[in-house]
User: Fold this.
Amino acid sequence: MKSILYFDGNCPLCAKEMALLKRLKNSELELVDLWHAQIDIPSDDLLKVLHLQTPQGEWKKGLDANVAAWRHTPIGFLFIPLRWPIIGPIADKIYYRWAENRFCKIKSKGG
Assistant:
């Protein structure tokens, strides 16, 4: 089984990050563009922030998903500080604010 990272392929920043992740990742991570996936989860939930499903069926989202995905690369250790107790809450606030703003722009454009 693999970890599966779901992302919004229509987001330019997301697509750029996924292109780099695709080059660096090992075979234990699958990247799924939500615009080409058949899934039973409300798409707005998945489109708003990154979601990763572990091989055990656990779901991670936001920066937890991002850090878990990058752990499948040789540079994954660089993302670990985003989960440290002092940095994590600040990083989460920034990430979720950015994600909400990006999502609202998409919805207002009819995407």
